[in-house]
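Methods — Computational structure assignment.
A single polypeptide chain was analysed. Its primary sequence is given first, followed by the predicted tertiary structure written as structure tokens.
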Amino acid sequence: MELTLWTYEGPPHIGAMRIATSMKGVHYVLHAPQGDTYADLLFTMIERRGERPPVTYTTFQARDLGGDTANLVKEHIHEAVERFKPEALLVGESCTAELIQDQPGSLAKGMGFEIPIVSLELPAYSKKENWGASETFYQLVRGLIGKPTQEKLQHNAWKEEKRRPSVNLLGPSLLGFRCRDDVLEIQKILAQHGIDINVVAPLGSSPEDIKRIKNADANVCLYPEIAETTCNWLERNFGQPFTKTIPIGVGATHDFLNELHEILGMKLPSQDKDASRLTWYSKSVDSNYLTGKRVFIFGDGTHVISAARIADQELGFEVVGIGTYSREMARKVRATAKDLGLEALISNDYLEVEEAIKETAPELVLGTQMERHSAKRLGIPCAVISTPMHVQDVPARYSPQMGWEGANVIFDDWVHPLMMGLEEHLIGMFRHDFEFTDGHQSHLGHLGGHSNEDITQHAQTEDQPIASINSQKTEKSISWTKDGESELAKIPFFVRGKVRRNTEKYAHNAGCKEINSETLLDAKAHFGA
């Protein structure tokens, strides 16, 4: 366990809270000390819910450790069942309570309640939040559905029963990235293809809904981090096949529909190749500006793999870095990185990720809210594509990532930061034009129309965080002339740091003591810029 300012994932009991809060009729008793109730704010502040999570904390204190903490657990379990009357009860412990070894799940099962009780054993010191959510969902489904019958689901049973085929949408949860809207988009698309939805879980489902999961003809695994373990179990024990393609992006949505129709034994009707505006834009003249843009991608496994495909195959970007904090998805992300000729970064250290961004010098970062902060410090455009996220990434409007409309949203979210970067560059280039008044700013808030001296000074302060420590030590004796700084200021701010670094390296190797505009141009020619 490490002490850190920011973390990509919370402990596994936060994942269990996500499942309990996503569902109806489920209550979670968490054996935890005072202070662990901070997790409530994740749902009320970020998800902007009008109610607390359905969680009862034992909130033991230091003075309780000398007494009977097991009895404290039993009192809170009894109080929670009497007060909230849940249809199913989850019982677990936080990382601190795990050390006491009160075994709250065993205590709850011995109290004689008639409701289903799921005991959660989530190793807090070796696992993280997404694993905790996955394990909780799996244990809940397994506990509520019960033992499998001898007869497994028959392929194409819906045809014999003369009904429409039905599927389950598994994996969406609260504090997931745009899950609510993804579900609506996939429901709309499947309805157009004559496919009914049996159960959506865990988001919005009840214990009774969970028991009906086995009635569907197939499962759609929308978020492997949460649902893949459950889907594998349902396939082994009930013969329910599940989709492996995540419908994020135009190509992946086509492939997803092909895969699902094949599983269900349906004929796929001809699809509109221009169902998303992203396809049109990729073929347009305007998109030429974006072709070959360098992009760095980091986040959860599902969204990183999807983003890499969109960037590489649909928008013509060059992926220069890729990684994930999700160790459960590391193998899949490494496979994607290998296909791109890269080595994946598997890390939960945001500072290591920031160093990788500096090293690859991208023109766009696709990441979490942490990469947004890093990109802002480095002066690089960024779009958030994954959790962890902040409140601005949980829009009140309809804003999916999946399906045709999701491709439109992605198109907007990714292209706009690059276009705004171009606008910023143009304002800097034409700052001496009579149409630009002194002090003019673009809506990004940078110093668009300031005087040449102000621009130069601004460029120096903006570039400082990007320059590496080694570069500062090696080239500290090299100075920039006024015309050199003026030429540097003409370069787009999001690659200016890389150009400064390369020019100083060139000047150092060439034995130059100062850098003027000619030196800068020579360095650009040397590095093929």
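Note: The chain has a mean pLDDT of 85.
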